[in-house]
Design goal:
This protein is an alpha+beta fold. It contains 12 helices and 16 strands. It has 2 domains: 201 residues, Class II aldolase/adducin N-terminal domain (L-fuculose-1-phosphate Aldolase); 124 residues, L-fuculose-1-phosphate Aldolase. It has a 7-stranded mixed β-sheet with strand order 3-2-1-4-9-8-7, sandwiched between helices. It has a 5-stranded mixed β-sheet with strand order 10-11-16-15-14, with helices on both faces. A two-stranded antiparallel sheet has the order 5-6. Helix 2 packs parallel to helix 6, helix 5 packs across helix 7 and helix 8 packs across helix 11. The radius of gyration is 20 Å and the shape is globular.
């Protein structure tokens, strides 16, 4: 269905609200778009909080050359959205998420058939008929590429061409791309993907996913906001007692290639963390996250928990993390371009 611009704006703003409330993203990691015509689509802007978006913040982009109207910068992943609209004429709505289970499973770099036996995965164990209808016959994984780059978009196009009927694409070490004829169908795909990837995670990891969220202590400190996080995967990785590498690129962006694991009594490192901010695992006791405000600390905690989930699966299966050079680039790009300045006009977006 092709939408008039005013109608499309309202649908997209509603989708942004759902994206935040659904838990499919943290902060501005992720984006949504809607087709306006065979030549144009409307997309969320780069680095603006979804909770406060207005119609004037949405950006009209040309599918052919990615040029756009107005002074507001569109999402840096606009090329991926344009690729979907070029290759899938039946698709009029695209959601790019960083949802936890899909992101964790993406580190395996595999395509997951939903109608055939695939190693220790049997279709009847991982997908219902309704989920199969929402996702298609396979969940493919696009190869890793640095966030917001042409190679990443090219990898997504290759995965789509290999699997012309797939309605969701995993992006290795990154997130997921879900599509549909309209807003409802695209989100239905995203929710189905998360459930199915949760089952894949359990089978491949040989464990049940936790049902409790874990304890959290938090409060303001002299130079910002501190959280002592004891969510399930963070706690499991802290009990391992070793540093955790970045298996997801949003963790690389926030924390670089490695998150240290220290003894809780390491006062010198804790003093450094209090001054510089960041995240550190506390041996057997979760993690400490320090940021300039509660919002940033919460986002860092969500991303660290998701990375620990991905690490748990990757370590089980012998899968490599994001390579150090790429992780360093992701972190440098994030620090230089997208770190929000308190009280300023700059905003943060990773894709």
């Amino acid at each position: 269905m092709i939408y008039q611009k005013k109608q499309a704006e309202q649908i997209l703003l509603k989708a942004c609200e759902e994206l935040v409330n659904s838990g499919l993203i943290a902060r501005t990691w992720g984006n949504v778009s809607i087709r306006l015509s065979k030549d144009l689509f409307l997309i969320t802007p780069s680095g603006r909080a979804y909770e406060t978006l207005q119609a004037s913040d949405l950006v009209t982009v040309k599918i052919r050359d990615l040029s756009y109207e107005g002074d507001v910068k569109p999402s840096s992943e606009k090329e991926i959205h344009a690729s979907v609209y070029k290759l899938r004429p039946e698709v009029d709505f695209v959601v790019h998420t960083h949802q936890a289970n899909a992101s964790a499973v993406s580190v395996l770099g595999e395509d997951f058939p939903l109608i055939l036996t695939n190693g220790n995965l049997r279709a009847e164990k991982i997908v219902t008929d309704e989920e199969h209808a929402a996702l298609g016959d396979v969940i493919p994984t696009a190869k890793y590429g640095l966030s917001s780059t042409k190679p990443l978009a090219a990898n997504v196009r290759r995965a789509m061409r290999r699997n012309p009927n797939a309605k969701a694409i995993l992006m290795k070490n990154h997130g997921a791309l879900c599509m549909g004829a309209d807003h409802e169908e695209a989100f239905k795909t995203a929710y189905a993907l998360e459930k199915v990837c949760g089952r894949i995670f359990e089978i491949r990891c040989g464990c049940k996913m936790p049902t409790k969220t874990g304890a959290l202590l938090e409060g303001e400190i002299d130079k910002g906001y501190m959280m002592h996080v004891r969510t399930p995967y963070i706690l499991r990785m802290s009990r391992r007692g070793k540093d955790v590498k970045a298996y997801l690129d949003d963790q690389a962006q926030i924390g670089g290639p490695v998150t240290r694991c220290i003894e809780p009594g390491d006062r010198s490192y804790l003093r450094k963390l209090a001054g510089d901010g960041g995240s550190v695992l506390l041996k057997n006791d979760g993690a400490l996250v320090i940021a300039k405000d509660k919002e940033e600390a919460a986002a860092a905690a969500i991303v660290l928990e998701k990375n620990c989930q991905a690490a748990m699966l990757a370590l089980k299966k012998g899968v490599n993390p994001v390579d150090k050079a790429s992780a360093d680039l992701e972190h440098l790009f994030y620090v230089n371009k997208y770190s929000k300045r308190k009280g300023g006009d700059d905003a943060e977006e990773t894709d």
